Amino acid sequence: MHIGLIGGIGVAATVVYYQRLTAAVDHMGGKLDLTISHGDILPLIRNNLADDRQPQAEIFARQIDRLRDAGCDCIALTSLGAHYCVSEMNELSSLPVISGVAPLDEYFVSQGVKRVGLLGTRSVMTTRLFGQLKQTEAVALDDEIDTLGQSYQDIAVAGTCTDEQRVQLLDAGRRMIVNHNAQAIVLAGTDLNLAFDNQSPEYTVIDALDVHVSVLADLATGRRNLDEVAMSK
Fold first, then answer.
1. What would the pLDDT profile of 129-184 be if each residue is shown by its tens digit?
2. Distance (Å, whole) CA 65 – CA 56
3. How far apart are the C-alpha atoms of 77 and 88, rounded to whole Å?
4. At what angle do helices 41-50 and 53-69 cross, to 10 degrees?
């Protein structure tokens, strides 16, 4: 199956999607058919902060049409925060949209995790992953959502993470474990690998990007078909 990715939102996350998806498909012994459409993170940030869903959905729809014309069978967003407008995007999309959010609940259950702490964009933390967790309870540091959300935004735009930002995010995860009884911290922002890769926090970390990549790899290699995976709603 030919996979389409809407990338550039941000660039670092797109690179990691590409690296991990190619590695997963190679490990399965398959061949990856992939096309990436480069997007612009700055309009996405503006529209997300203003909760302007239709304009962003229209931007994505134009990219999806280009991916369709390139032969893609389905598409995925390389940003969990960008899922804020998926309902509007689905109305316009010319291809099936493979959700990066919907598979998480099932994955948490499979790991025996009932309560998770979230790090990501403001909207991801405020809405607790857009209200799509049905079997898992999610917590966030509500008094610090603006501060943490701004740090995440800065990391995504820059494509790099400073030592100060890394310490801030690692500590936020620790406090959700200690003070809010989270069993695991979910990297619910696809650029958070810049802060957490090669780190050894004394708590369980689940990278939502890896869960999404696993679904895409199954599709790419034919292990699952579109009827068997969760679509964006």
1. 999 999 999 999 999 999 999 999 999 999 999 999 999 999 999 999 999 999 99
2. 14
3. 14
4. 140
Q: Of 215, 223, 178, nearest to 74 (Cα)?
A: 215
| Residue for token pair 């909207």 | 123
Round to whole Å and give the CA distance between 151 and 35: 30
The helix/strand/coil state of 5 is strand
Cα–Cα distance, 185 to 103 (Å, whole number): 16
Give the lowest-confidence range in 95-99, 116-120, 167-171, 226-230. Answer: 226-230
Q: What ranges in 51-202 are assigned the alpha helix state H?
A: 53-69, 86-92, 102-110, 122-126, 145-158, 163-180, 193-196
What residues contact residue 177 under an 8 Å CB cut-off, 6+ apart? 117, 183, 185, 203
Q: What's the predicted TM-score (pTM) here?
A: 0.94
Longest dimension (CA), the chain: 50
Q: Which domains does the chain have, with CATH numbers?
A: 2-100+210-228 (3.40.50.1860), 102-208 (3.40.50.1860)
Burial per residue of 32-71, b for 16 or more beta-carbon CB atoms within 10 angstroms, e otherwise: bebbbbebebeebbebbeeeebeebbebbbebbeebbeee
Locus of tokens 């990278």: 207
Q: DSSP characters for 151-185?
A: HHHHHHHHT---HHHHHHHHHHHHHHHHHH--SEE
Tokens of 73: 């069978």
